[in-house]
Batch of 3 targets.
Target 1
Amino acid sequence: MVIGAAAGWLLWLAGALMIGLSLLVGARRSIGNSLLASLVAIAGGGFLLLHPTAGALAVSLLVAAVLIVDGALELALALDLRPLRVWRWLIASAMASGLAAVAVLSGAAAGRSGVPGL
């Protein structure tokens, strides 16, 4: 929940700074787009401040995605190094990454906020 709240504060602050910079430096043609982007950042930050578990869920999904990609790349490397003796360890590491991703995703699906600390 701390991660979600911190992300909300940072996003809100970035949006406020974007508004200030767009008013100071913005060209007349693009000021509408930059103000709209600033308001979206402020709204997203405000949402994360009010609902910090949504930020924790996003972090959980990001961790799961990294674990899945890591496992897939390790599996590809293991199959490439198949004649060597080390390929079994790479397959074991790929399976461990896959199992960790499943554990993170199952905790995220259950709505537990402590999933990134898993």
Note: The chain has a mean pLDDT of 81.
Target 2
Amino acid sequence: MDVLVVNAGSSSLKLSLLDAADTILAATEVQHWDTEDPPPALHSFLNAITRVDAVGHRIVHGGPKLTAAAVLDPAVRREIEAVTDLAPLHQPRALAGIDAVSALLPGVPEVACFDTAFHAGMPAAAATYALPAAWRETFGLRRYGFHGLSHAYATRRAAQLLGSTPERLRIVSCHLGAGASLAAVQHGQSVDTTMGFTPLEGLVMATRAGNTDPGLLVWLLQDGRVSLDELSTGLEQRSGLAGLAGQADIRDVLPNADAGDPAAILAIEVYLHRLRQLIAGMAAAMDGLDVLLFTGGVGEHQPPIRAQAAPSFLGAAIDGQRNQAASSDADITAPGAAVRTLVITAREDIEIARQVRAVLS
């Protein structure tokens, strides 16, 4: 089955066609597109493809009802649209991608694959906020978690590299990019994660603050210190590395820290402090750790972050030369370390194609 994977981001549109062996037959990316009018590049790409057996769409949020990949039909589309307020930057783009591809490939089966689905079975202790029951029940408040497609692929690939299966391992998966989250994966299942009801919770990210005292946010809103719009924009777009160092891209912050810039040094220290703290928390949720893996743009390409993130008290240790030389899928474990540390290339497209085939079979 040749599967077209459609990944509609907050501004970009990525498409790749995978054959049955997960070889990429064709791929393209539209950096900016008007959701009201499918870009000519989409038409050209689809016209150049001779065969598409099925389509898989990455959807950031499945809400409380869509907890597994599902064949797209009007009812599923309505559920995706119904939770737009939970992912306002991504859901409208995903819906536009669905509509555009459906119009250009009529009759081809389409499957929605959700980033939240991997975490849907988390234990209640991990998924439940200690908030009033009336709020939780009325508004469906819970920790959803995100990056599930990436975590699912990375954990399976890590087990494959180690000649094992996810069911036999306790894995902390570190998806580190502009958005970042950790997942504790035990027996192949997510048992905890760092993002929550929205992608704002957890790690320090490029422009998001991660864990923040909610009382501080209430204080900012009181007496008009900041408006609701200012708070929302600040938390989404002006916090994280951008708020600490004035730059959101860690590729800019690290050299400035090495050059002695105090703001950049503090930004990296805060970033690593939170990362190490939450890696330990994920390991605690599984009562131990067998594998630590790094994936995503930062996880794959920033050896200094990996080197300082691995918690030695949990038995993780990284070989310096292997860490510096790592490319693609690599084992960077130091000799004698109790915990294996891996670098895994992010391949959400493979996970989406796998889920499409499973649903349609």
Note: The mean pLDDT is 95.
Target 3
Amino acid sequence: MKKWIVLLIVLGFAFVGLAIYYWTTSAGNLPSWLPGYEAGSAHKHLKHGLAALILGLGCFTWAWFLSGKKTATSAPEE
């Protein structure tokens, strides 16, 4: 379980970094393998950055839920 938490945190930081990269780099300067690359374009992909930010925050949230206390389940009382 600990491995999943670490992986989700790393992915969260990667997605947040990607969001910042999308917001600060024009579409013509993105690497060609990234979605949104347009040769010679000067506009920035705000929606791609927003999607990456949402994915990053989702990874952080999932890691937070996985790191919570585990409650013991009791047998139903009759």
Note: The CA atoms of residues 4 and 63 lie 7 Å apart.
